[in-house]
Amino acid sequence: MKKGTKLYSVFRGKCPRCHEGDMFETRNPYILTKTMAMHDECPVCGESFNPEPGFYFGAMYVSYGLGVAQFVATWVALIVLGVDSHPAVVFAWVLFIVLALAPLSFRLSRKIWINAFVKYEANPEKKMINKKI
Question: Which residues pair with 7 in a beta bridge?
Answer without folding.
Answer: none
